[in-house]
User: What shape does this take?
Amino acid sequence: MQGCFIWLLLLAGGVFVLLTLLRWFEQTAEAVDNGWWNKLLLLVCMPFAVWLFPGRVATGRPIPVPHHEPVRGFGTVKAKVEVRSPNEEPDVTDIPTARLASPPPGTPAEFLGMPVIPPKKKPMAVDPDKLAKLKQKMREQGMLPPGE
Assistant: This one.
């Protein structure tokens, strides 16, 4: 029990010394930059005095997390279905549509509206002369057997 406690104390002390060294280098550099020679003398004579001065480097998140805002949807979807008899198809009088929000100002014109998908290109026709030349060249280079 006692041996485990001593190791934990040594570990905590080591972390404390490492943090003190990090702060010491930061604050001595700041003291030299600003010409605070009395602070520099104090830090050189008593390194653990770094804990008396506020650190310049902030830990954690420098900007607070913004407050949560719920997701804004595109409105409600409504559909009216009227069935006249069990044998008839349902008559949809109101097509379900979503009200779209206006785009933010400065949106380029190519991003407004539905995207335009170009039509598929027709496959190119194979030229038999070029195919014969390619096969001959491949045979010369040893890529195809002579009979093929």
Summary: Confidence is low (pLDDT under 50) at residues 94-98.
